[in-house]
Amino acid sequence: MNIKISILYLALVFTMVACSGKKSNAGDSDRPQVLIETSFGDMTVELYNETPQHRDNFLKLAEEGFYNDLLFHRVIESFMIQGGDPDSKNASPNKRLGSGGPGYTIPAEFVDGFYHKKGALSAARQGDNVNPEKESSGSQFYIVQGKVWNDEMIRQFEEQQKFQSARQLMMKMYNERMDEVKRYQQNDQQDSIMQLRIEIQEKAEQQVDSSLYKINSERREIYTSVGGTPNLDGAYTVFGEVIEGLNVIDSIAAVKTDRNDRPLDNIIMKMKVLKK
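and the corresponding structure tokens:
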């Protein structure tokens, strides 16, 4: 089903994505702002007060000069640009980056309504297998470029999310009945094993709530106009957004990279706190 977008909303979107580097929105006068300077131009990011630990940490590091002369060391077009690894300062061209930090992590601060639209400022982190609490890196961050989605892409994404959730539940239920499975295997009761799998699959599909994987109308309008990466929502903390210089994201994302997604030519950043 096509989404009807009002003329007023289209006008707003046009202003947000204008390639002149103008502000993506009016900003919030109560939110801190930090300037990120690069050879491709400057970006002004606004930090959310609803994520206070990430906000305060980012401001502290920026004020201390921690980020100055670090690289955007990981760049993937139509996805994101990542920086903040202290090991990237003066790093040799062949050095693999992405593991450095200030020696601490930050608890996740997921806030409903903050999602991975284009320009979102989010915290990088280690994977779930070693970081089940989804704690953020103490310094590494990424800025979303993403892509513009259409209705069919969103529908397929929702179905995929639902399928993955059902599959995880199926594996859990299957493991809980492993004694029963082993008994069937010992007695070579393959039909019983197959019937058990069908039973578990049906139960898992019934228990998965499809509504949990639906992208709401607000997010859908953003992802189908401005763009973003909805597959990251709820997995990484979003703690700010670019309010000026969206075109700089596109310029950086378009550079040539090596097989580790590191730009062939260093992209150096400097930061300045504009408002606390």
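(Above: one complete record from the training split.) The radius of gyration is 22 Å.
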